[in-house]
Amino acid sequence: MRLWLFALGIICITTYSIFSSERRHVCLSKDEDFYLFYGDDIRHLKSIDAVGWEAGGVWPIANPMLFKNSVGSVDGYLSSPSLHVHKGVLYILFKVCSCKRMGCDVGVAKSTNEGHSWEYIGRAESLEAISGAMTSSRLSLFQSHETEYLTVSENGKITVYEFREFPSSLKEGKKIQVVPAGFQHARVTWHPAWKQWMLLATKGPGFSWEQQSDEISDISVFFSKKNAMVGWKRVKVARPPSQMQPVADGGDMYIHNRTHSYRIVAICSAWGECSGLKLRRMYLHRIRDSKKLVYSERDVNEKSGGNVFARLSGPKGEVLRYASIARLPSGKVMMVGSSRKRPDYAMHLKLYLLQSLEYLCLAYYIALACCGAIVIASYISSGAKANMKKNKTNTRVALAWSKMSKFHPLLVLGGVAALLCIALLLKYVLYYSRLHQPFYKESRPIAIAGKFSQFTLMTMSYSKRASLLDGFIQYYSQCPSVGSIIIVWNGDGVDGIRHLQTHSRKPPVSIRVEHKGSMNNRYRPDAHIGTRAVLILDDDLRIPCSSVEAAFAAWRREPHRLVGWYPRLVEVTQAAYHGEPETMASSKYNLILTGAAFIDHTAYFKKYWSKKYAKLRDLVDKKKNCDDILMNFVVASEHRGTKPVVQYLRPQRLIDLSHTTGVGISHDEKDFIRKTEACLKEFEKIFGNPLKTNTFPASSGFKRPECNQARSKLFCSYHS
Q1: How far apart (Å, rounded) are the C-alpha atoms in residues 87 and 494?
Q2: What does the alpha-carbon distance between residue 209 and residue 245 come to, in Å, rounded to a whole number?
Q3: Which residues contact 201 (CB under 8 A, 6 or more apart)?
């Protein structure tokens, strides 16, 4: 009986854990990233990535401008952003919700330079009543008599909260009880052309228009000539044309001028699936021979008939769910859109499989330990016959043990050996699952001085390596700061990879064909590179996106440097080149191989291709080697100071597939070193010795990789 109760308790605890973790997962899945769009007009907005804003010499400033990790520790999610201009300062207010207490606060960030950079200033001092109501409501702000108000709506009950001091604290709310039940979201604004207050309430997604008379039931519109709190009168809402799609609340109402006013709606299906935003123009007119007002709206489309918001999305094609618009003091228009990150199910599946392997291994070891404990306990208790008679379970275990002890010693030894083999196998399964996990975990961009940016990923390839490109593009497209990918095609046979070039892909992929094969081609100046940072990366390397983002952040702090993952040590005066094992053993380096490094192309590509280095480029073509060392000399010669201009960052993992494909210029190690040392002699004649030595920082937990010659060289590339 006790055993059954124990089993029932285990089942209850497991079930509760599963359901609580599922509930938490559903809550966290509501988290949204915020993206900025900027333009002269609401119909001509661009993502800030395409505007070309510069900050601290690094461009462009990029989306997302705000997400959960950038506002401190949040056990929940962010959503419902609302832009507001107060005394010339741009604010964004948003919901900060907790999955533990199931309530929300109002988070605040501000920008004093029209959105170029944002500072999270904390949460507004709110009230307990607002916390629970905001979980299902969206934030909406309006201003009346130089005082800001926040509206929170819940099932037709609209509560207006006055800011005691904007944006830090709120007063007790006042209710507006004119909206019918069933309406989830409400917005209040003053319409200067219509000279009255307007309240528009909407239902959530998943509804369908009711076929009754000539009205629609998804929105309710009210007007008041008195003030925003009283005197509301409902007006008739005309049914839209049949070709218009069902929509839900997608964001703010925006009054452009006396004749043009708009609202943002979300395009949704009858099942509640929303697939982006749409702009609608609002109209108010009187019925003939009557004083009654009628409200109507029409879709705003491009001249070609397309949705003007169709091109607006996150950097990786994230679909916008919600948006807020504000006119800046400069007269420009800014919109903040929110989107939930689209999950990469294939990557998540691989990660879950690896985690499942870990759990199975741990469960096996726990079960093995429990069995051992039971056998030992039973063996100890087997001598006590009185206890054996009282406890049938112990009797059975003791009898089983006595039978096992009569088996042949070789059989027992074989069983122990089998258990050890299984344990060893599971140990390696556990090791390899942990080894590959960084490649499947989601990574986030890193803000420097409150700003995000993007880089161009560039790889050079040719026909023998074409098979690597599909996997290369698919893998690195998931890294959040990759703005575009450029394939430098060295030679002919480009037709086999033309399918990779598409600007509809996020990020876009382009192919630059170089008909003369040369190692120098990767540094050729290119006007199509839209970022200052370029990550030059060989197509056979796989580095976790988290390590790529960390290196990009390090480069942004000092963009004159070469930042990468392959350090080397050369002695210029002795013309000696040291490979990875020797460099790691010496704990110092003065080169970063540019086959995996960040570089400022605006500063160094033109210098590399200048006339004075023409003979050295010819040497690179002759040797089919040394291009990365030449670039190190070019960078160092531009900064002949005491500080090194190279920086090594230890990656979580690094896989070099060239060891498995057999395609690579450094596989013949002796020939590679001989050519490299010949290049060093020629480089010294032109540059002298501008290279400065750097040391591996002890604080970074630096650990040399295993480079045992008896093992595969692939292990040498795991810096773990």
Answers
A1: 57
A2: 10
A3: 153, 156, 158, 179, 183, 185, 186, 187, 219, 220, 221, 222
DSSP letter (8 states) at residue 713: G
Number of Cβ atoms within 10 Å of the Cβ of 115: 23
Q: Is the peptide bond before 167 cis (omega within 30 degrees of 0)?
A: yes
- Two tokens at 57? 């010499």
**Cis amide linkage into residue 508, ω under 30° from 0:** no
For residues 221 and 210, give the distance between their C-alpha atoms in angstroms, rounded to a whole number: 17
- In this structure, what token pair is assigned to residue 56? 């601290």
CA–CA separation, 569 and 681 (whole Å): 15
Tell me, yes or no, if the pTM score tops 0.85: no
Give the separation between CA 501 and CA 588, rounded to whole angstroms: 41
Euclidean distance between CA atoms 447 and 451, whole angstroms: 5
Q: Which of 42-46, 324-328, 655-659 has the highest mean pLDDT?
A: 324-328
For the CA atoms of 77, 80, 81, 83, the dihedral, rounded to the nearest 10 degrees, stands at: -160
Instruction: Give me the pLDDT at residue 214, please.
Output: 40
Judged by phi (left if over 0) then psi (alpha if -120 to 50, else beta), residue 467 lies in alpha
What SS3 string covers 640-706? CCCCCCEEECCCCCCEECHHHHCCCCCCCHHHHHHHHHHHHHHHHHHHCCCCCCEECCHHHCCCCCC
Per this entry, what is the length of the chain?
Answer: 720
pLDDT top residue among 491 and 571: 571
511-529 mean pLDDT = 90
Q: Quote the CA–CA distance of 444 and 277 in Å, as a whole number.
A: 25
Asked whether 319 and 339 are in contact (CB, 8 A), the reply is yes
Report d(CA 483, CA 461) in Å as an integer. Answer: 20
DSSP of 481-550: TEEEEEEEEESS-GGGGGGG-BSSSSS-EEEEEESS--GGGGGS--TT--SSEEEEE-TTEE--HHHHHH
Residue 125 · residue 172 · CB < 8 Å: no
Cα-based distances in Å from 222 to 175, 196, 283: 15, 10, 13
At 21 the three-state DSSP class reads: helix
- Beta carbons of 458 and 522 less than 8 angstroms apart: yes
Instruction: Output the pLDDT for position 22.
Output: 44
Please choose, from the candidates 429, 358, 434, the residue with its C-alpha nearest in 3D space to the C-alpha of residue 718: 434
701: left (phi over 0), alpha (psi -120 to 50) or beta: left
| Residue 18 confidence (pLDDT) | 43
Which of 697, 618, 625 has its CA nearest to residue 665?
625
Could you tell me if 624 and 665 are in contact, meaning their C-beta atoms sit under 8 angstroms apart? yes
Cβ atoms 455, 483 nearer than 8 A: yes
pLDDT of residue 25 exceeding 60: no
How many Å apart are CA 208 and CA 272, to the nearest integer?
Answer: 10
Cβ-in-10-Å burial (0-12, 13-18, 19+) of 592 comes to: buried
Whether 451 has a pLDDT exceeding 70, the answer reads yes
Cα of 241 vs its chain's centroid, Å: 39
Where do we find the tokens 């609002």?
282
Angle subtended at Cα 235 by Cα 333 and Cα 209, rounded to the nearest 5 degrees: 80
Q: What are phi and psi of 490, to 5 degrees?
A: -95, 90
Residue 164 CA to residue 444 CA, distance in Å, equals 36
